[in-house]
Amino acid sequence: MKQIFPEIIFENFAEQHKAGRYNPGLVIKLDNKVYPISAGYSDSLYFWKTKNHLYVLSVNIPLNYVGLEILDRKQKVKLVNIFIQREEDIENIFPKGLNDYEPDTIKSILLTWFT
User: Fold this and answer.
1) Which of 12, 15, 59, 96 shows its CA 20 to 30 Å from the CA of 21?
2) 86 lies in which domain range?
3) For residue 66, is pLDDT > 80?
4) Residue 16: what are its φ and ψ, rounded to 5°?
5) Total count of domains within the chain
């Protein structure tokens, strides 16, 4: 799995309207394809890819949540969407607190727990 740094853009108005959102969502561009993601504007974002999958980790320390999406790179569909915000869950999964883990470690922990 290789860490990558794709371009992050806002979805266009047509995509926003079709999805019924009041604000545009985030989209990443990779290898001439665009992938809508669930992350918020203020999230810290980290990306990895394999031959078939794209991994998107979103971490928001002030709001105390973490999310991990796994997308199929060929079909551009979301295969896994993990979102953890409940304080008890964060404490159980990340006993030292989100601040004390590197993004790659957070990703690995979430993959171990939920896939």
Assistant:
1) 59
2) 2-114
3) yes
4) -60, -45
5) 1
Q: Is the dihedral of CA 89, 96, 101, 10 positive or negative?
A: positive
State in Å, rounded, how far the first CA of the chain is from the last one. Answer: 16
| Type and span of the H or E element at 4 | strand 2-4
Q: Which of 80, 78, 88, 76 is nearest to 107 (CA)?
A: 80
**CA-wise closest residue to 49 among 72, 80, 66, 25:** 72
pTM of the model: 0.89
| CA nearest neighbour of 16 among 33, 45, 36 | 36
pLDDT digits (tens, 9 = 90+) for 19-28: 787 778 898 9
39-66 burial: b if 16+ Cβ within 10 Å, else e: beeebebbbbbeeeebbbbbbbeeebbb
